[in-house]
Amino acid sequence: MIHVEKYHGTGNDFIVVDAALTVPDRRAFAIKYCDRETGISQPDTETTGADGVLFLALEKQYSPPRVVMTLVQPDGSVATMCGNGVRCAAAWAAEQTGADELMIDTLAGTRRATVGDETVRVEMGQPSFDPDTVPLAEESPLIEASIDDLTVTAVNTGVPHAVAFVDDVADVDLQRIGPSVRNASVFPEGANVTIASKDAERPGHVFEQRTFERGVEDETASCGTGAVAIAAAARRLGRIDGSESVTVCPEGGTLEVTISADGTTLAGSVAQSYATELPVAEPRRIS
Ligand SMILES: N[C@H](CCC[C@H](N)C(=O)O)C(=O)O
């Protein structure tokens, strides 16, 4: 049995495992326990399963402390980056160390995080529209291109996103169009599909968000790299200007994104839902 904790960042939920514990087959572990029908669950909690497993290797000897984060997704794939995952990793490491500044090492680079009373903020780096970085199967950036019924702008915010601005996110059949855009041939490694609509009734830049995630192969309640992708695409398309704060509202909560020439930040709430023990398969012995 190993000790695990369940965290969520604005509804994007993860099983957190200390990487010092032995999980011989991370892929099999993630596929088994993330399953929304038969995966991890607790009495008195509504959700079964998770959007991924965060394996976190804490390096307390540094100042600020560092965490090597590996996100294994429900389909067994490894995501290079995850905005809400980094925020959960920072909250977990703050709990272990008492530090409020953390450096989270991801496959997309190091992200500095600050843990406050209400929110966890993370520096998200510079979004890229470069076709080699997204990556795209084309030589020029994909800006307002038609794919299926959506008008898509492609941006990498640690992982690739296809962002489409629509009149009302609630009117989009994401279960149908998500897989179609996610698997479009222009994305050789696939893409997360993020739709956004401007909330005209609220002052400032406020967008509703829905994201169909690669690796989860379903819609999630929140996606941090997706929220940053909305702000980056909005800026590129002239929907917002200059250096700005953008409020993004996925189903699971509210995310604040700042975007400027220096880079982006992502902030929002993080909560621990419960801690429990899970059985793991014995490591194979060499006889
Ligand atoms: N939910 C994550 C993104 C995971 C990205 C992953 N689905 C992929 O690109 O394979 C977030 O908060 O940023």
Helix proportion range: 10-25%
> Describe the biggest sheet?
18 strands, mixed
Strand content: 35-45%
Which distinct ligands sit in these coordinates?
2,6-diaminopimelic acid
Provide the CATH superfamily of the largest domain. Diaminopimelate Epimerase, Chain A, domain 1
Tell me the CATH topology of the largest domain.
Diaminopimelate Epimerase, Chain A, domain 1
Mean pLDDT over the full residue set: 96
Gap between N and C termini, in Å? 23 Å
Order of helices and strands: EEHEEEHEEEEEEHEEEHEEEE
Keywords: Amino-acid biosynthesis, Cytoplasm, Isomerase, Lysine biosynthesis
Active site: 82, 223
Main location: cytoplasm
EC number: 5.1.1.7
How would you characterize this protein structure?
- With 287 residues, the chain is α+β, with helices and mostly antiparallel strands.
- It has 2 domains: 127 residues, Roll (Diaminopimelate Epimerase, Chain A, domain 1), CATH 3.10.310; 141 residues, Roll (Diaminopimelate Epimerase, Chain A, domain 1).
- Helices cover 16% and strands 39% of the residues.
- It is built from 4 helices and 18 strands.
- It has an 18-stranded mixed beta sheet that branches.
- A hairpin with a 2-residue loop joins strand 6 and strand 7.
- The longest helix is centred in the N-terminal third of the chain and has 15 residues.
- The chain starts with a strand and ends in a 9-residue tail after the last strand.
- InterPro entries: DAP_epimerase_DapF.
- It is an enzyme of class 5 (isomerase).
- Keywords: Amino-acid biosynthesis, Cytoplasm, Isomerase, Lysine biosynthesis.
- Belongs to the diaminopimelate epimerase family.
- It is found in: Cytoplasm.
